[in-house]
DNA sequence: TATTGTTATACTCTATAACTATA
DNA sequence: TATAGTTATAGAGTATAACAATA
């Protein structure tokens, strides 16, 4: 699942010196010298790999991939699961509140809510204090889905990061939150 | 910069008990009782926030945002900078190799290379050993751009994570790489 | 037969403008 | 006047199929 962002791996350097290029032709009437050509065997991505942002993105994509695969079993996109999970934890939440939490624009939220409603996971009731808004609630099927999907997601993540110690996992969580909070 | 993935913040819980919902109507001919309605003040995203993947994504988005802003000064998208940086470090790299590194499909790479070429940052020369392929090289303007952009990116990231100690930054880098490598 | 680069094209995701009903 | 939800639509990003040239 790509996303307008680099994903590299290699580290070995087997290419010509960085920035090396054919010398500029000085004379005006001379025949241009044939430009040098190289073949790259091992791609060197050392600069990108030195960036925290690059590594954070790759790690994120890796875990998101695990989530995507896990949610395929429920025929849910990640954003759809997130929506249901939030409604599950916040009965009566409004469309706007979901938009803010999920960083989805209101026009794009409409369809998602409609799909989840048509699939029988969501229902809408009037908001107790705001006549413009609608509160969202899980149906029984929605609650069952969330109650099944959440622990499964948690388990698939645990399996994916099991090569890190519990201390490392906690450390990573703390550092990540320190980064964006 | 959204992206099919949740972005939440709140932690406080000021909503009804999780999963609470109106009792099911038992009788068949009875009038259905009015469903309970709630208002959510503080959104509770505690489950999502417990996931490493969620936190990794939020941290990643935060840093990518810094990169995007930084590269706007060069009128470059992140993927375009990454492309130029890779060509800079790998003179003669092919389109296919870039596709693999950047996780971009070949048909979608064509336009990027064309744009960077038209803007005078890239040039294409025949591949020394493969008549089907073309090697990519930075022009002088391209080299100048990369040599200016790379340290600027590095600096903007450093500023963005300056509230972490150098040890924490190194620790985070190691843990992130452990996660996806 | 397989691969590189390419075209055309479809599909998904994201963004903007504008409308209505209510606050 | 501002905001919640909505419609329509534009734009960017991502995906598949197929082709010519070369391996």
Automatic annotation (TrEMBL), chains A, B:
According to the lineage, what is the superkingdom?
A: Bacteria
Q: Ranges for the HTH marR-type domain?
A: 49-181
One Pfam family, please name it.
MarR_2
Chain segments carrying region Disordered:
1-31
**SUPFAM superfamilies, alphabetized:** Winged helix' DNA-binding domain (SSF46785)
Q: Which residues cross the membrane?
A: none
Name the PROSITE patterns for this protein.
HTH_MARR_2
Q: Which Gene3D superfamilies match?
A: Winged helix-like DNA-binding domain superfamily/Winged helix DNA-binding domain
Under the heading InterPro entries, the entry gives: HTH_MarR-typ, MarR/SlyA-like, WH-like_DNA-bd_sf, WH_DNA-bd_sf
Q: What is this protein called?
A: MarR family winged helix-turn-helix transcriptional regulator
Residues making up the signal peptide according to the UniProt record = none
Biological classification of the source:
Bacteria, Pseudomonadati, Pseudomonadota, Betaproteobacteria, Burkholderiales
């Amino acid at each position: 699942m790509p996303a307008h962002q680099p994903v590299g791996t290699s580290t070995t350097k087997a290419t010509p010196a960085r920035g090396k290029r054919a010398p500029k032709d000085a004379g005006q009437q001379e025949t241009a010298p044939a430009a040098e050509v190289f073949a790259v065997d091992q791609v060197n991505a050392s600069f990108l790999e030195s960036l925290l942002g690059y590594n954070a993105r790759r790690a994120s994509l890796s875990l998101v991939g695990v989530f995507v695969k896990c949610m395929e079993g429920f025929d849910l996109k990640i954003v759809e699961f997130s929506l249901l999970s939030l409604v599950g934890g916040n009965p009566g939440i409004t469309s706007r509140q979901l938009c803010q939490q999920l960083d989805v624009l209101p026009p794009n939220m409409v369809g998602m809510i409609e799909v989840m409603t048509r699939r029988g996971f969501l229902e809408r009731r009037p908001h107790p204090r705001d006549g413009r808004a609608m509160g969202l609630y899980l149906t029984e099927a929605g609650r069952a889905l969330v109650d099944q999907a959440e622990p499964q997601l948690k388990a698939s993540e645990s399996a994916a990061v099991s090569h890190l110690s519990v201390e490392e996992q906690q450390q990573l969580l703390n550092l990540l939150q320190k980064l964006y909070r």
